[in-house]
Amino acid sequence: MKSRGRFLWIFVVVFGLFCIVPLLTKNTFFLRIATEALMWIGLAITWDVLAGYTGYLNFGHGAFFGIGAYTTAILMTKAHWFFFPSAFVGGMIAGLVALLAGFPTLRLYGAYFAIATWALGRAFQQLALVLDITGGPDGMRLPTFLNPVFFFYTMLIFVGGLFLILWFLLERAPFGLKLKAIREDEEGAMAIGLNPARVKVMAFIVSAIPAGIIGGIYAYWITYINPASTLGDLVTDQAVVMAVFGGLGTLIGPTIGAALIYAFKTYFWAYLSQYQVLYLVILGAAIAASVVFLPDGLWGAFVSRQEGRKALKKGLALKKEKRA
Amino acid sequence: MISLLPQALIDGILIGGIYITFAIGFSLAFGVMHIIDFAVGEWVMLGAFMGYYLNRWLGLDTVVFLPVVFVVFGFIGYILQPVIYKVLSGKRGNPHLMGLVFTFGLGLMFRGLGLTFFGFYSHSLKTFLSSGSFSLDLGSVFITIPTVRLAGLFYALIITFGLTYILKKTDFGIAARAVAQNRDAAGLMGVNIERISSFIYAIYVGISAMTGILIGSVFSINAQMGGKYTIMAFFVVVLAGMGYLAGVPWAAFLLGIVQAIFLIYFNPGWTLLAVFIILYVILLVSPKGLFGRGI
Question: Cβ of B88 under 8 Å from any chain A Cβ?
Answer without folding.
Answer: no
